[in-house]
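Input chain follows. Return structure tokens only.
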Amino acid sequence: MSNLLRFQVVEEAFKKKATEVPTPSERPSDYFGKYVFNREKMYKYLPAEVYNKLIDVIDNGARLDRSIADAVADGMKQWAQEMGATHYTHWFQPLTEGTAEKHDAFVEHDGKGGMMETFSGKLLVQQEPDASSFPNGGIRNTFEARGYSAWDPTSPVFIIDDTLCIPTIFIAYTGEALDYKAPLLRSLHAVTKAAKDVCQYFYDDVRKVQVNLGWEQEYFLVDEGLYSARPDLLMTGRTLMGHESAKNQQMDDHYFGTIPDRVQAFMKDLEIHALELAIPCKTRHNEVAPNQFELAPIFEECNLAVDHNMLLMSLMKRVARNHGFRVLLHEKPFDGINGSGKHNNWSLTAERKGEEHTLLHAPGKADTSNPEHTANETLRFVTFIVETLMAVYRHNGLLKASIMSATNAHRLGGNEAPPAIISSFLGKQLTELLDHIERSDKDDLFTLKGKQGMEIDIPQIPDLIIDNTDRNRTSPFAFTGNRFEFRAPGSSANCASAMIALNSAMAEALQDFKQRVDQKIAEYSKYAEFADGSGHTAKFHAILDVLRDDIKTCKPIRFDGNGYSEEWVAEAARRGLDVEKSCPKIFEHYLDDSSIRMFEATKVMNRKELEARNEVKWETYVKTVQIEARVMGDLSMNHVIPVSTHYQSQLIKNVQGMKEVFPAEEAQRLSRRNLKLIQEIAERTERIEQLVEDLTEARRVANRIVDIHQRAIAYHDTVCPKMDAIRHETDCLEMIVEDGLWSLPKYRELLFIR
């Protein structure tokens, strides 16, 4: 018995060469957005009045005038047909972590026995997918199919192949959100309004606030032939068994190393397609683990960035096939080496009159000629930093729930990823600044100078604060100079999940901050000492008082040490932070009273929507583990054990042959190793058989639990440990069985053949 398939695909993979990718004749800036109905195309294909109204909707949040829908649809259709499109689809993001689309042709009866190509405003604005066929958490019964997809004009339409794709939200007939985009848009509205209100304390010319997101997409590439020979990769996206390779990432020679030729060709091809779809690819490089890579764009408005990430993940899979690869977006496809994340770089920008943009999480420029200006900029910076920390502190459990999944659970807590405890790293200088504000008395912080105004004793913040401290790779939520980097989201996730929670929490924090500041302003304005002067004294006094309270309140979320240490786990628990490791229990935070109040107060989601989403999360967890358990049982019984017992039979024949050739005592001595292997194979295969039976029974018992929440907990507590035990036995057998017999491509082949 020999494994022809494994060695055949290995041989073919070694022979593959890089696919030639023609370099476009134009510069990237010339074909950027080629297949996107962007503002340039809008201006060309839409009447001026329609264009202006649509831009007002996009830029200023004006209500969409349905009367312009037909004109917009006509312009879109004309452009799309000129680009070769024959179909259109509403492109939405259901609770599957992927995207969905149903393609319809631009055709209708012409009433004369023929057909005509048409596309109306009604079809652009709204369609009716089957809402019961997507995860909905019980909002829709099987017999209640109606749901609606509605056009999101803030995200440009685009063309894939021959289809015009229209980004949309997806809601139930009764109005509840069944996707990620609808609550994301609500959360963006909430946080931008709250941030604008707070910005009014510092800038009287602020027009709007924008949420920015820059994601970093990590992924693995595996040769397509090797992938097809691994049923676990094919069915689950990760290797359910496989012994660690003698060499993996311990030499630190892959990170930022020379990109392999086949991979370079794939990256080039991917970037060309991405740029044509207006995805602003910026960075590509080797990641830490072998065959692991990263792509990162320039940051964008949050909603658009989420759409672009979902589009890119789909695009990656298509392009990879053309280069003989499969993309692995699973957070932990290989045990023993780094998993893949998707760091979310999040910030707020205030757009002011005169097209000036102020990054609210960045320190302002010092002005020696105007100390009051400097103090104002410093106070703005500290305000948005502290209120972000307040949001993260109040809802640290919810933020962990927003990034948790059955797949990301394998990554979090490993030394390549942040621990499953949400904390924030600020760096030495910013930490000292907040400590100074907290420790100082009111009199220490304020120096009143009559009509000249007021000085604030806060150390000046240099412009290059990002360079004044080292980075903490163990921090899930780290300040990086002008933004926060949320490092916990997984590589396969929809960024919207984390952004919905973070934006909503930030909106609540800013709303609460403003309410308390306004109360104090009203109180302090009654005193005579604040009646004269610059007119800012009472306001500044109120802001600083509230900030000092908040700095004290959110201090437990600040942690600059080693997040992997056991001491931190105990310390985090003492601080009141969530230290739960069970994925199904972590999801419970969506239904905390504080979470429900926050989501409802910000009008992002109501209780019914939250309960439905948790139903989906628990059900998805169960199904994920269930599929993995079934695949593991199949591989164990139909691959591992037959191969192992076949090798055992060869060893037994060898031992028997030794007895025929050598005297009994000599034969016994010479066969000692083989006898030991025979026994070990017998014992391990016996344990595997028993564990597979136990695994099946654990699933059977769990499946009888009606409540999906408790069923998910049962899968975590009883099914997953048995899978870990089976893996241990199979990985040990892989090191025993003759290499030529082992049926599954090994880690050294999956990770080092490029």
